[in-house]
């Protein structure tokens, strides 16, 4: 992780960031202006600029003849608007989602394809490759691809590390590296959905955020200080495995009575059917709700209250603030979210109540792929903060 | 907070840290060697060195005549071993604790004094001043005092910010500033005890840690990436107000059934007496335990299990790792900590179990004051990382 890099590496990254930030703020600059603005020595600055030009982040150009003044024309440096396209791929359980973003932070396109659960990893990577090539009506230039961010199901022990495979997906980084020939960074896809919501979604621009995803699995992610909090083993955000029922049902994790056993989409549908309802999936449940089905309403009120309890404890622990609820089950809307918010506010400590801000997620199923891009943009030394700055060009 | 400083400020801090780190690694260096090692321009380097010399962190000296070679002698720069003494003051409910640390990270001394709860703030500050002057057998040089770190009871909304008073303690920073004439930074004293354990105590050197304090109040702190996690409103670490009993007893926070209502020292003593035991305070309870009192044993087993539940949920959320238990109640030892650890391991998700590492706190009642010093050392731009680096001088 970047925070554990040595001071010289850290400083060098800081120098690059500063150069990129100054170029985005001031527009085209000569090397000498850049030198006086940055406080860097001529040697250091020339090295850094050479590196940024070599990797395509910065372009050097001479002024148009009409703009030239007397004397030798001075080369100016600018950000390269075509540089640094990043793609994100989310390998979900039964689907692949892809997204591409350019250096100006514009989403070029997203695409998804469902597949059978037993699809092999080489087949999934092929599918991802085909989806990527379908993006953006040909505006995606894979020649300027900087990196691939990848989301996978389950814990990732050294997330963000190029060399680290996801658990049980040993060959994946190699397969992707072969296919795209650029660095590959990996993290848990639910955690990445959290990062995406904090970058482009319901919590855009927030530096602190709790994200809970209620889908067929229940999990989440924590964004602290603008970065993903992963925990020492990359095992954070396992909100679905907080125990809520004494001697409850067995859970996929090996425990019993976990939140996931009562609040996952599957658990809710099972409970609905056990209470006499008929619904194959969450849209069917949502439609029963819209028709005024009291069984569905009471069930979701119970589930919402249970989830609110867990979130209240979490807000007491990490601090109250923005809480974003995503996943298929969140699509049931107020029937779930109102009792959830009520329980959350009732159970968080009174002093903290006013700071709780509950919002539904906005990015849907491509959140994981977008988060994988955000991971690259946040963690790659050169591009870190770069697109944010490119945006602020408009401001200045 | 430092993480929200602008890029130029961040970079400037990075420059200072680099200069301090190079001096600590290489020993005495000339300005020109420092220039080539750091990559900084002459102008930037001279400005930074001038600032570091002015605030006493760095001293410039000419070589001894015997060591001189031909030509004009070259001034060398070194870290000032006497620079940057920091004091920490913990204003607890009924006591003041102080500690002083020098730039080499050595604890010069600690002192404590109990007082009546109704003591006014000017009186408490006077008491703190007298305690500070009693430290270190006169080796404390208040002339080289860099800053005062302060811990207070209750939430602190903008912790680490010099200008921000603690809630309900509006005049305190001014009183302290008048008294010591150096910058004052403030945070919640339980959170500071967490930082102290991660710096000098049970979790020394750990970058990730959960700290829980079981005293007459129940609270804690989270250290993530080597820094205190405060939450957006400075309201994190309120583990004592996580609800554990449905329709439970009223809590000081205004809620009901909080962990504090069952696991604080007061709650445990009340429950012990209600069950027929006799104990005025925690030492009396501990002595009953040693004599084999089954009521005390069963009670602490229940309390431990309850606390373990809460910690398991917390480890699932923020990631399993080092958990440190402090506060007076922790002094009851295995009677509390064994059932606590058992519940924690049983309730954390199975995949995470192996990563849980439970330890008793080691710093005792001066933890808050030491943490206030750690706060200054971590957050002050100039001294950030400085003492750590001064330590590594021995390594190279």
From TrEMBL, chains A, B:
Parts of the chain that traverse the membrane: none
Gene3D superfamilies: 3.30.420.40, Winged helix-like DNA-binding domain superfamily/Winged helix DNA-binding domain
InterPro entries referenced in this protein's UniProt entry, alphabetically: ATPase_NBD, ROK, ROK_cs, WH-like_DNA-bd_sf, WH_DNA-bd_sf
Family: Belongs to the ROK (NagC/XylR) family.
The name this protein goes by in its record: ROK family protein
């Amino acid at each position: 992780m970047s925070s554990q890099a040595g001071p010289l590496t850290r400083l060098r990254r800081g120098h690059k960031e500063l150069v990129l930030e100054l170029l985005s703020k001031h527009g085209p600059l000569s090397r000498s202006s850049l030198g006086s603005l940055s406080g860097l020595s001529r040697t250091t600055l020339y090295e850094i600029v050479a590196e940024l030009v070599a990797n395509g982040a910065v372009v050097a150009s001479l002024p148009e003849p009409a703009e030239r003044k007397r004397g030798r024309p001075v080369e100016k440096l600018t950000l390269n608007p075509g540089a640094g396209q990043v793609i994100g791929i989310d390998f979900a359980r039964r689907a692949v989602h892809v997204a591409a973003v350019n250096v100006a932070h514009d989403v070029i396109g997203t695409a998804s394809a469902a597949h059978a659960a037993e699809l092999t990893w080489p087949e999934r990577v092929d599918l991802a490759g085909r989806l990527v090539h379908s993006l953006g009506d040909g505006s995606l230039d894979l020649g300027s691809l900087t990196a691939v961010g990848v989301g996978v199901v389950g814990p990732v022990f050294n997330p963000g590390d190029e060399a680290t495979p996801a658990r049980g997906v040993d060959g994946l980084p190699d397969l992707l590296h072969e296919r795209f020939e650029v660095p590959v960074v990996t993290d848990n896809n639910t955690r990445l959905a959290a990062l995406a919501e904090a970058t482009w979604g319901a919590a855009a621009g927030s530096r602190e955020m709790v994200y809970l995803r209620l889908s067929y699995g229940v999990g989440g992610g924590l964004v602290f200080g603008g970065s993903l909090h992963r925990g020492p083993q990359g095992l954070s955000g396992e909100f679905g495995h907080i125990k809520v029922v004494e001697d409850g049902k067995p859970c996929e994790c090996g425990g019993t009575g976990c939140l996931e056993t009562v609040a996952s989409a599957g658990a809710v549908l099972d409970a609905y059917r056990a209470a006499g309802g008929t619904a194959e999936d969450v849209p069917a449940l949502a439609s029963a709700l819209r028709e005024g089905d009291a069984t569905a309403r009471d069930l979701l009120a119970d589930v919402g209250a249970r989830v609110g309890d867990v979130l209240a404890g979490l807000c007491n622990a990490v601090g109250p603030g923005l809480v974003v609820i995503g996943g298929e089950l969140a699509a049931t809307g107020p029937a779930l979210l109102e009792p959830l918010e009520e329980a959350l506010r009732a159970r968080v400590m009174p002093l903290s109540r006013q700071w709780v801000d509950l919002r539904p997620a906005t990015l849907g199923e491509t959140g994981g792929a977008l988060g994988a891009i955000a991971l690259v943009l946040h963690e790659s030394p050169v591009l870190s903060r770069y697109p944010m700055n490119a945006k602020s060009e408009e401001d200045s």
